[in-house]
Amino acid sequence: AQKVTQAQTEISVVEKEDVTLDCVYETRDTTYYLFWYKQPPSGELVFLIRRNSFDEQNEISGRYSWNFQKSTSSFNFTITASQVVDSAVYFCALSGLNDYKLSFGAGTTVTVRA
Amino acid sequence: NAGVTQTPKFQVLKTGQSMTLQCAQDMNHEYMSWYRQDPGMGLRLIHYSVGAGITDQGEVPNGYNVSRSTTEDFPLRLLSAAPSQTSVYFCASSYSHPLAGGRIGELFFGEGSRLTVL
User: Across residues A11-17, what is the average pLDDT?
Assistant: First the structure.
């Protein structure tokens, strides 16, 4: 069975602060994918990143960065210099390499105040 | 670019009524799925399909039926609506062919359908 835990329910920050979202996962698979999705107030879900279990390199995309640590089963997400437009619910998710069935965490609501 | 289209966006039902949520995608994705989103529970998989004629159950399939007669369409049927089915429903599709490379497994979501069962 697969399980994704996002322990932080809500995070509130002031604009320009950094914010880190925690994601811990459980799986019996030796190979798997990890994902982050964003759900802004408008409601649609937007893909942010996919990481496979072979690749533990950290990734940076603009103000977003991801830290994958297989040893601790974590895939944390950091927003640097947050902006009001970053306010959203962020979901971490996990799938097998060949089954595409994503298991989602409960989500973390990020509120960025001006 | 239509992507994934869900209808209706909003629906109110009475307990016991049946209805179908429609989902269509124009990206020739083999994989399609239905999720429900409830507060504090994230998204939970209801049913999924890996291609036309093939469907399977997800985590919370009870009370729902699906079929996949074409690659494009994946309707979700509520057989006898119950208040516990009040939720926001999302249809999603993804590339599943190995040639999709770096996009494999990336889900494309519809805008969601908000269902209230009284």
Answer: 97
